[in-house]
C-alpha cells in the first residue's frame, strides 16, 4: 500500500473528532493538529500522539503532510484552504464550504489550478440510508418526484452563541440555524433531488436569541425536475427533537433521520429498497482512496458549492422578498 497519507487537522473544536477519525483510518497518519488555543492544541496532540502548532503554515513545507483538514469557523475556511492548496496540499473542509460563493469559488479555483483535491466534509453523505434513497430516486422507485423536505428542530442556548464569539454571525458563521445546523439537510436535498431552479419564498428571523443572523428559517424552492422543496431549520425548539429529510413521489417515499435510519413507503408493497452500500465510511477514508487509487470524491468543491448556492439564494429571497433564480456567481 506504500507510505501512509499524512494529515494535519486545523481547528480543534469539532476537529478533535476528525483527528481521532484520521487515527482510526487505514492508510492515514495524523502528523499534527493546529489550534490558536495553545493549551488545547497541546492537549489533543498529547492524547493522539502527534505534533501540534498554533500556525497551520508551519506544516505546509512538510513533505510528509499530504492533506490539510480545515475545521475552523466557516468564514475562515478559504484563509486556510487556499494557501494549503497553493502549497500543493490536498484539502478537506468542513461544512458549509464557506460563507460566500466568492470565497468558495476561490477555493475551487485554487484546487483546480494546483491540481489538488478539495473534499467538502458532509458526513450524511456516508450514510447507507442516504445512498439507498438517492438510488431509489435514480431507479424511479418513487415515481414522479413531488416533494423533498428537510426539517430540523433543535435547541441551542444563548451561551452556545455568546461564548463562541463567531456562531450566529454573518462574517464567520455565514448565517444561523440554516447555515450551521440545517446545511446538512440542504446538502442532502440537492444531492438527492438534483439541480434547484429557484427559491420561490423564504423567511428568516430571530425569536429566542441575541444574534445577528437567524435562529429560525423556512424556504420553498423548486427543482428543475419539477418537484417542490422545502426546508425548515431552527435552534429555538425546547429540546433537540429531530432532523430529517423526507422524499416522496407518486409511487413511494422515504423518511430518514440524521443518523441514517430510514422508513420506507411504497404503494406497491412488493417493492423493496435498493441494496447499496456507501463506497466509504467517512471523508478520511475517501481522501486516502482518492490520493492512492484515484477514487472519486463523494463531495468535491463544485458539488459542495451547490448547498451554499441554495443557502445564499434562500437568504437573498428572505431579505428581498423576491423569487431568486439559481446559477448564482457570487
Q: What is the count of helical runs?
A: 11
Which CATH first-tier class of the largest domain would you pick? Alpha Beta
Superfamily (CATH H level) name of the largest domain? Dihydrodipicolinate Reductase, domain 2
Count of discrete domains: 2
Low-confidence stretches: none
Going by CATH, the architecture of the largest domain would be 2-Layer Sandwich
Question: How is this structure best described in words?
Answer:
This protein is α/β, with parallel strands linked by helices. It folds into two domains: 5-123 and 281-300, NAD(P)-binding Rossmann-like Domain (Rossmann fold), CATH 3.40.50; 125-277 and 308-325, 2-Layer Sandwich (Dihydrodipicolinate Reductase, domain 2). Helices cover 34% and strands 25% of the residues. The chain is built from eleven helices and 14 strands. The protein has helices spanning 15-23, 38-48, 77-86, 101-113, 128-138, 158-164, 170-173, 177-180, 183-193, 283-293, 301-320; strands spanning 5-10, 28-34, 51-53, 67-70, 90-94, 118-121, 145-153, 196-205, 216-223, 228-234, 242-249, 252-257, 262-266, 324-325. The strands form two sheets. Strands 13-12-11-7-10-9-8-14 form an eight-stranded mixed β-sheet. Strands 3-2-1-4-5-6 form a six-stranded parallel β-sheet, with helices on both faces. The longest helix is centred in the C-terminal third of the chain and has 20 residues, at 301-320. The mean pLDDT is 97.
Helix-strand layout with pairing:
Layout: E1 5-10, H1 15-23, E2 28-34, H2 38-48, E3 51-53, E4 67-70, H3 77-86, E5 90-94, H4 101-113, E6 118-121, H5 128-138, E7 145-153, H6 158-164, H7 170-173, H8 177-180, H9 183-193, E8 196-205, E9 216-223, E10 228-234, E11 242-249, E12 252-257, E13 262-266, H10 283-293, H11 301-320, E14 324-325
Parallel strand pairs: 1-2, 1-4, 2-3, 4-5, 5-6, 7-10
Antiparallel strand pairs: 7-11, 8-9, 8-14, 9-10, 11-12, 12-13
Amino acid at each position: 500500500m506504500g507510505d501512509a497519507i499524512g494529515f494535519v487537522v486545523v481547528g480543534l473544536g469539532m476537529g478533535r473528532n476528525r483527528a481521532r477519525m484520521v487515527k482510526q483510518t487505514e492508510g492515514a497518519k495524523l502528523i499534527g493538529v493546529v489550534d490558536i488555543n495553545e493549551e488545547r492544541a497541546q492537549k489533543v496532540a498529547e492524547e493522539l500522539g502527534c505534533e501540534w502548532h498554533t500556525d497551520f503554515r508551519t506544516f505546509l513545507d512538510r513533505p510528509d503532510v499530504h492533506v490539510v483538514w480545515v475545521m475552523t469557523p466557516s468564514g475562515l475556511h478559504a484563509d486556510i484552504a487556499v494557501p494549503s492548496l497553493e502549497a500543493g496540499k490536498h484539502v478537506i473542509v468542513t461544512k458549509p464550504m464557506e460563507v460566500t460563493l466568492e470565497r468558495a469559488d476561490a477555493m475551487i479555483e485554487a484546487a483546480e489550478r494546483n491540481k489538488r483535491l478539495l473534499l467538502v466534509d458532509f458526513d450524511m453523505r456516508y450514510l447507507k440510508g442516504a445512498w439507498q434513497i438517492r438510488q431509489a430516486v435514480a431507479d424511479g422507485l418513487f415515481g414522479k418526484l413531488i416533494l423533498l423536505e428537510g426539517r430540523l428542530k433543535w435547541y441551542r442556548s444563548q451561551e452556545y452563541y455568546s461564548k463562541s464569539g463567531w456562531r450566529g454571525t454573518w462574517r464567520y458563521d455565514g448565517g444561523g440555524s440554516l447555515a450551521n445546523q440545517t446545511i446538512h439537510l440542504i446538502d442532502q436535498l440537492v444531492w438527492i433531488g438534483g439541480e434547484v431552479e429557484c427559491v420561490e419564498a423564504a423567511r428568516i428571523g430571530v425569536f429566542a436569541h441575541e444574534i445577528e443572523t437567524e435562529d429560525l428559517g423556512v424556504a420553498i424552492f423548486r427543482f428543475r425536475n419539477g418537484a417542490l422543496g422545502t426546508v425548515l431549520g431552527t435552534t429555538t425548539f425546547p429540546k433537540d427533537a429531530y432532523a430529517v429529510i423526507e422524499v416522496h413521489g407518486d409511487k413511494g417515499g422515504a423518511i430518514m433521520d440524521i443518523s441514517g435510519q430510514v422508513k420506507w413507503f411504497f404503494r406497491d408493497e412488493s417493492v423493496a429498497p435498493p441494496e447499496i452500500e456507501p463506497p466509504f465510511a467517512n471523508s478520511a477514508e475517501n481522501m486516502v482512496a482518492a490520493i492512492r487509487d484515484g477514487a472519486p470524491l463523494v463531495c468535491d468543491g463544485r458539488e459542495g458549492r451547490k448547498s451554499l448556492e441554495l443557502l445564499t439564494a434562500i437568504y437573498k429571497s428572505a431579505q428581498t422578498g423576491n423569487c431568486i433564480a439559481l446559477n448564482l456567481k457570487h
